[in-house]
Amino acid sequence: FHAQCLQRLQSPRMDLCHVPATREKGWYLALMAPNVKGPNYAWLDPSRLYCHPQGLQDCVADLLQPFQGDAIDMVAGIDAMGFILGAAAAATLRKGFLAIRKAGHLCVQTAAQPYTDYSGREKVMEVRTDAISPGLRILLVDQWVETGGTMRAAIELVERLGGVVAAPLCVPTGVAAICIENSEGGKWIQERYKCSHCVPPCLQPRFDQHQ
């Protein structure tokens, strides 16, 4: 599996219709493309995964598997790539979808939260205030959790408005992403919230080291 991932990551093109005979958890990670544009970009681009119909379906199914039987009222996706997985998860669960956006895009009343993203840039995140009622159980979805700053800002917004990402004395919803790195921020989130991601344990160290 490891060798297969490395081989596919080095391939400039890929058959987006091919489905392996044995679909182990995370097989679709090999569909992702490495960064070829330098340090101003993320080290890996997952968007090619979304072009593969079976890959996308299996990715969403793996993300949702730990939450089977949990009470989820709504799925929230984080601007921008979290919209893809979040909307797909919401459709699968037959729940509503809430977009948590970068500042300046919502023309309604919003709550705002400053944060520092994975590249060290200072930004502000917003969410509309009329969609989250006290006690609403929300599954937060993003494409990737690297330093954890973006996800922590989203959690802060949801909880400030009374939403539940995870709490004692109730069935927890939580956080889902293709990868949650074992950074300081990633560990903080995993210690406090129910989390789901797609990277097999044998590959986690390589993802943490951006290899």
From TrEMBL:
One GO term describing the cellular component: cytoplasm
Stored InterPro entries: Adenine_PRTase, PRTase-like, PRTase_dom
Keyword Transferase set for record: yes
MF annotations from Gene Ontology: adenine phosphoribosyltransferase activity
Localisation per UniProt entry: Cytoplasm
Reactions catalysed according to its record: AMP + diphosphate = 5-phospho-alpha-D-ribose 1-diphosphate + adenine
EC code: 2.4.2.7
Pathway the protein contributes to: Purine metabolism; AMP biosynthesis via salvage pathway; AMP from adenine: step 1/1
One GO term (biological process): purine ribonucleoside salvage
UniProt keywords, alphabetically: Cytoplasm, Glycosyltransferase, Purine salvage, Transferase
Domain Phosphoribosyltransferase: 69-163
UniProt main location, coarse: cytoplasm
Keyword Transport included in the entry's annotation: no
Superkingdom in the source lineage: Eukaryota
Family in the record: Belongs to the purine/pyrimidine phosphoribosyltransferase family.
Subunit architecture: Homodimer.
Protein name: adenine phosphoribosyltransferase
